[in-house]
Amino acid sequence: MIIEYGFGSFLPLRKSPDRPARDVVFSQVNSIIKFLIVAGATLLISLATAGAAPKRIIVLQSNGQDFKPWSDYARAFQQELERQSSWPMVVQRFPVALGLDEEGAQHQLATFLRELYSRNAPDLIVAFGAPAATFLQRCRAELFPDVPALFAAIDERRVSRTSLTGNDAVVAVWIDVPALFANIVRLLPRTKNIAVVMGSSPNEAFWLDELRSQLQPLGTSVNLLFWNDLPFDEILKRAGALPKDSAIFWVQPQVDVTGATHDGERALKRLHAVANAPIFSHDDAFFGGEIVGGPMTSVSQGSQAAVAVALRILAGEKAQDIRTPVLRYGPAKYDWRELKRWDIPESRLPEGSQVLFHQMSPWEFYRWQIVAVCSAVLLQALLISGLLYERRRRLLAEVDSRQRMAELAHVNRFATAGELTASISHELNQPLGAILSNAESLELMLKSPAPDLDEARQIASEIRRDDERASEVIRRLRSLLKKAPFDSRSADLNEIVGETVTFLSALALGQSVELRTALDPEPLTIRGDRIQLQQVILNLIVNAIDAMSELPPAERLITIRTARDRESAEVSIADRGPGIPPDKLQDIFQPFFSTKARGMGMGLSIARTIVEAHEGRLFAENLARGGALLRVELPMVRSD
Hints:
Elements: E1 2-6, H1 21-50, E2 55-62, H2 70-84, E3 89-96, H3 103-116, E4 124-128, H4 130-138, E5 149-155, E6 168-173, H5 177-187, E7 193-197, H6 202-214, E8 223-226, H7 232-239, E9 246-250, H8 266-274, E10 279-281, E11 293-294, H9 299-314, E12 333-335, H10 336-341, E13 354-356, H11 362-365, H12 367-419, H13 421-447, H14 453-481, E14 489-492, H15 493-510, E15 514-518, E16 525-528, H16 530-547, E17 557-565, E18 568-574, H17 603-613, E19 617-622, E20 628-635
Helix pairs in contact: 2-9, 12-16, 12-17, 13-14, 13-15, 15-16, 16-17
C-alpha cells in the first residue's frame, strides 16, 4: 500500500510571470499548513489500518510538481513501486526548485523535513533529477545522514561521487549529446541550423557548456543557435521564423532569463504550434505529440531500475553495495505523425527503430476487406464482361440465324409456289382466256358497219376486270416470292388471313377442299412482317390440304378462325384429316421431320421460328372428332 503526499514547489520562493512574490509566499505557507494537517491525519489512519509500521519514503522531485521530465520519472516510480512492493508504504513527494544562490533556502527546506520526520525517520530518500540531487548532497549531513538515499534520473556527469556516503546509491543515465545531434543530421541531411531551446538556471548552465564542448566536431557544417538568454515569448517568435533546413532541439527551459518557469507540457505545445521546423529532444518524457523522436533516455527504463534498487534497500541491503550500470539509450523511437508532417522517409531511420502512433491508412486498416471487395468486384466485372460477350455472340447468332431463317423461308416460299404452279396457272388462265375471248368479240364488233357501242363498253369493262384479276394473282405471287429483310409493321391479322385464303383458293378448288373462314369482327392489330406471317398461314393451310388427300372430296373441309384472347390475337387452322400421332406432336416442329412421303420437314420448323421471332407461339393438337388443329398466338398492339 502506498500513501502519497505532495504539494507545490517549496523552495525557492521564486517569482513567476503570472504571480507576484508575496502571493507565492502566502501560497507556500498555506500549502505547508494544509500538508501537515492532511499528512498527520492520513498517517494515523494508515497506521491504524495497516497493523504494522509502514515504509516511509521521501521523494524529492526537481523543480515543480508537473515539471518534465522528472515528474514523469517520479510518477512512474511510484506506480511501479506500488505494483511490486509487498509492504505498506507512505510516499511523500516534495518538489524542489533551486535558484542561483539559495543555500540558506536549501537549509530551511532540510530543517523543515527534519522537523517533519523528527519522530519517525524515513526509510528511504529518493531524489529525481540534478536539482534535487544537488540539494540532497549539499544537505546530506543534516538531512538524515543515516537514512539510505537513492539518486535517480540524473546524468552521470551531474553526480558528485566524492560527496556520496555509504548510505547512497545511484541509478544514473548518460545523455549522449553527439548521438542526439547526429540523429538530427541523419534524418535531415540538409540541416544548416539547429536551435537549442533551454533556460538559464544553474543546471541548464552546466548543459550549455556541455553541449558547446561536445558539439565542436560539427564545426561550421551546422550553425548552433543557443536561445538560453531569451525570454520564452521571444523564443516562440524566432521558432516561427527559422530559415529553411533548420531543426529545434528541446531542453525543458527550467528557468528562462526573466526568472519564469515553464513546467508541464504547455510550453512545448506552444512551441510546436508556431515552429516551422521539426523538434527533437533528449528524453522520451517529451515524446508523444510534438517530438520527432530518436535515441532518448527512457522514463520506463529509469523508473524500473530505480524501483529495483529501492526495493533492495528497503529489504535491508546496504546502499553502497548496490552497483547499477549507467543507463544508456535504448532503441530509437519516432512519432509517425511528425515524420509525415516533415516529410521524413522511414528509410532514413536507424536499423531497429520503433515507429509509434502510426495512423493506418484505409488500405492498411481494411486491407483484407478491400482485397475481398476488389476481388468480388473484379470477379463480378469479369462475369459481367463474359455475359456481355456471350450476349453479343447470342445477338450476332440471332441475327445470323434470322438471316438464315429468312433465306430458308424464302426458299420454302419458292417450294410452296412450285407446289401451287397448277393452281396459279389455272387462276391466271381464267382471266387471260376471258380477256382473249372478249378482245376477239370486241374486234369483230368493231368491224361491223354499225357497232353497238354500249356492248363494246361492257366488253372493255370486262377486259379491264379480268386484267385486274390476273394482275392481283401476279401481285400476290410476287409478294410471296419477294426477298426482303424483316420488316415489322402494324397489320390486321384478319386481312393477312383473308389475303392468304384468297391466294390459296385456286389450290383448294383444284384439290376439292372447302376453305371456310370465321374471322373476328373486330380488327386484330399485331406487329410483324406481313409476308412472313402470310407464309406461316399458307404453310399450315397447305399442310392441312395435303393431310386430307385420301378423304372423299365431300369431307375435305378446312376451317380458318381468328379470335381475340385477352392481349393476344389467335388464328387456328383445323382440318378433318387423320390427325397427328400423339407421340409426334412435338417432333413435327423439328427440322427435317415430316409425315409426308416427299416432304423436306422444314415447313413447320420455319413456321415456328417465324412465330417465335414475332414473340408468339405455335401449337399443334388433335381434335376429338378427328383431324388436327394448329393454332398461332401473336401479341396484339395496345391501343392508347
